[in-house]
Amino acid sequence: MPGSMMSVSCHKHHYLLVGFLGFCLNSFVRGQKNNTLIFTKENTIRNCSCSADIHDCDYSLANLMCSCKTILPYTIDRASYHSDLTIWFTDTTVLGMLLNFTVVHYLKLSLCGSTPLPTEYLAILGLRKLQINSEVKGQFLEQNLTIYNSGDNEMRDKLKVLHKDRQMFLYISVLDTSLFNRYSLLKSYSVENVSSITDHFPSLPYSDIFSTTNNKRYVVTFIY
Q1: pTM of the model
Q2: Which residues of 58-83 are buried (b: 16+ CB within 10 A; e: fewer)?
């Protein structure tokens, strides 16, 4: 009889342990934040969801560790990325298709090649933080740049004022792709409270695309 009671007790503890481990595993999986990785390889574009960081330009590891699918260039639409977005690229053509007028908050760009890039300007919406990785003259360069932090008190005050005036406060970052060719510090400067991009920056590419309605104000940041 005591042996039978001990056996029941052991089984009960076993089930409790299995249930607890299952709960922990489910909580861990739910707590993981998948990041988006997009890369080009041999004329194909791969869109991946990754639960762990992948070493830059390691295509085989990305295909192995991430959930990836091939997308066609003409199916690319203007998506919004509110979590981390990483792009591995070798030329500006696909990079422009992926980034121009796309909403991205946290962006990492890694140049996977040594071919110099032409000077082109990409317009990125809502960019808060940027990280670039490149290889210049045999040296690997990693740099980070904070465009704005939504937690800043000064920024919150500005948003409150604009909200009272029923104005929209939009961030536009203009990225110079030739910065990947230089071994120099990543720089930026911003122009706030821009009512008309066409009037303020007439020579800026895409300036005519942005609306000039009265209830919009822009913060234009140039990254170079």
Answers
A1: 0.77
A2: ebeebeebbebeeeeeeeeeeeebee
